[in-house]
Design goal:
347 residues; alpha+beta; Aminopeptidase; Arc Repressor Mutant, subunit A; Alpha-Beta Plaits; 3 domains; four-stranded mixed β-sheet; four-stranded antiparallel β-sheet; 36% helix
Length: 347
């Protein structure tokens, strides 16, 4: 699971410790923090709350949260965070986020405690947590010890213990997050920075846009649910612009392709804008580029034959007298076509 007890110990130590010089070894820092009475009070309170904490985690884990339907679990988790004094909110993507500001420095790095909110199992899956031989079983829990974390619920007992122990927040602010995006800690759904997995998804979808999430999961090594979320984000952020079909022009009667270089009479903003609008509205213009060099625009135009192309030229080039000249090249064969973008997937 994403968060286990050791991470909470580290978090508590970070909160309790005063800032020390960069020259101090990490081991010395941790030793000093571990000896802090405040930290000891936090850990003692956590231990005393083990039964209640486990009960709270099981309650949240048993609220169904199939992909794209995590609202009930999100609201329950938000309510728990609000009960312990945090201003918790649910963002547009369904992530539950609560931030506790530091008291000394607003610019200090924020410590993020993050866990998954959703499950990868479809609607209708029995999410009852069962116990057998001292271990817990349930969808996504993978037979874990009774002292392991079941969900983002473990965040609340930590915050409660820190408050009960009167532990003072220091330089670092803290963000308590339950994410619907199955990704690395701190990677919010709304982020648009692309990682290696995003790039692999983009390359695969450029090759075959109909590839299923299950097939992508096998190809990339990420859960189908995570694939769906990433693809949804890529579309929302307009990185994937369109989902379209590529049609063989010859099979639909468009047997001729022309490359047209267009020069305008005068290149002012209004003339250029009007020409762009006409090209966008013309179905025969497959592509239109505003370019540097001897011409102003380069067009890719398809037609049934030369006669139809002449009709297109009459309509598009001589409509308002702004086209000074144009030059046409007839395509003999389509060696390579497409709009795929070369994406480096990195190491």
């Amino acid at each position: 699971m994403p968060i286990v007890r050791s991470s909470f110990l580290v978090a508590a130590l970070l909160f309790a410790a005063p800032a020390q010089g960069a020259e101090s070894p990490v081991e010395k820092k941790v030793g000093a923090m571990a000896a802090s009475p405040s930290v000891k009070r936090v850990l003692d309170h956590l231990k005393r709350q083990d039964d209640a904490s486990l009960r709270e985690q099981r309650e949240l884990a048993e609220i169904p949260a199939p992909p794209f339907k995590e609202q009930a679990r999100a609201r329950a988790f938000q309510s728990r965070l609000q009960l312990i004094g945090l201003d918790a909110r649910i963002d547009a993507e369904g992530n539950v986020i609560a931030r506790r500001p530091g008291i000394r420095s607003a610019s200090a790095p924020t410590l993020v405690l993050s866990a998954h909110l959703d499950t990868v199992f479809p609607e209708g899956t029995d999410v009852t947590v069962k116990e057998r031989d001292g271990r817990l079983f349930g969808p996504g829990l993978r037979s874990i010890p009774l002292d392991a974390d079941l969900s983002g619920a473990k965040i609340a007992p930590l915050k409660r213990s820190i408050r009960r122990a009167c532990l003072t927040w220091r330089e670092h602010s803290a963000s308590f997050d339950a994410k619907v995006h199955q990704n690395c800690v701190g990677d919010r759904v709304s982020d648009i920075e692309l990682d290696k997995l995003d790039r692999q998804i983009l390359n695969a979808l450029q090759e075959n846009n109909l590839m299923s999430a299950d097939r992508l999961s096998e190809k990339i090594g990420l859960s189908a649910s995570a694939i769906q979320r990433r693809a949804k984000r890529l579309r929302k952020e307009k990185i994937i612009l369109q989902d379209i079909a590529v049609v063989d022009p010859k099979r639909v009667g468009q047997t001729a392709t022309f490359i047209v270089e267009v020069s305008l009479e005068r290149e002012n903003a209004q003339v250029v804008s009007n020409f762009k609008r006409r090209m966008i509205a013309a179905p025969e213009v497959q592509q239109c580029y505003y370019v540097t060099g001897d011409s102003d625009f380069t067009l890719i135009v398809t037609a049934r034959d030369i006669e139809e192309y002449e009709e297109v030229v009459q309509r598009l080039m001589f409509q308002d007298g702004t086209v000074r000249k144009f030059r046409t090249s007839v395509v003999l064969s389509r060696v390579k076509t497409g709009l795929s973008v070369a994406i480096d997937e990195g190491d």
